[in-house]
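does this look right to u?? 2-acetamido-2-deoxy-beta-D-glucopyranose version
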Amino acid sequence: MRYAASLTALTLASVALAQDVTIHVGSDANGAQALAFTPANVTASAGSVITFVFDGIPGNHTVAQSAFAKPCEPLAGGFDSGYIAVPATTDKTASFPTFNLTVTDASKPIWFYCAQQNPAPHCLAGMVGSINAPATGNTFDAFVSAAKAAASVVPPSPALSGVGALATAAPGPLVSGFSGAAVPTGTLPAAASGSAASGSGSASGSATGSGSGTGAPAATGSNNAASATLSMSGFVAFVAAAFGVALV
Ligand SMILES: *[C@@H]1O[C@H](CO)[C@@H](O)[C@H](O)[C@H]1NC(C)=O
Ligand SMILES: *[C@@H]1O[C@H](CO)[C@@H](O)[C@H](O)[C@H]1NC(C)=O
Ligand SMILES: *[C@@H]1O[C@H](CO)[C@@H](O)[C@H](O)[C@H]1NC(C)=O
Ligand SMILES: [Cu+2]
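got this back:
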């Protein structure tokens, strides 16, 4: 009994810590195709994972980091998923490609846009988003307005690492009709021990394996913190499975 009680307390603490978020890319709140990120303005603590799901049918979008002052241009050192295309023939129940960003710095806003310009620039249509945007000053609403008034849309170079957030695997899976015009490259965080680390290793393998072969330097403190949170999420899933209940 005492064992079960401590497990429950630990589980609740882990759920509060993780704050994982899902953002749909190319679809609206009803699941209909749209030039939008849904939701487009989210809050996430350091260590949280933002899962971008490319589920607009059809769709061909990017998740690219920009700056408040230049909404439709790549931020130096920013992340970019590259173009991920979902064909019109895709079934609504398909396992859509995802791109997982771990927030490493929640103290500053993270701005992003879609760089697709064909047949018309998605960023100018307001396809932008934010993580931890402030409620006053440089708000999400002001960012959308700036994007719609932007002079140009500049395509970025795909990259896993960003400023204040990073991915540990390329978007995927790129199977059954899904395609990526380019697969992100860049520095992967050092592999951490434990089940969460081996999980992300196999994920990058299935996404055509690119990106996983680049040199990985020693992990920084924030990367370790992120890995710890991922491990806790895995543990929550394990506990949920063991108890036969859904916790999230
Ligand atoms: C997706 O968009 C990019 C950029 O416009 C393009 O190069 C690529 O061919 C498109 N992919 C598909 C499958 O249409
Ligand atoms: C965006 O989200 C932040 C919280 O991260 C909130 O304070 C702000 O009011 C939101 N802005 C809009 C326009 O919804
Ligand atoms: C993103 O995270 C989800 C949930 O853990 C996982 O199922 C998916 O495979 C991940 N995607 C990639 C590309 O690693
Ligand atoms: Cu788009």
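The radius of gyration is 18 Å. idk if thats expected tbh
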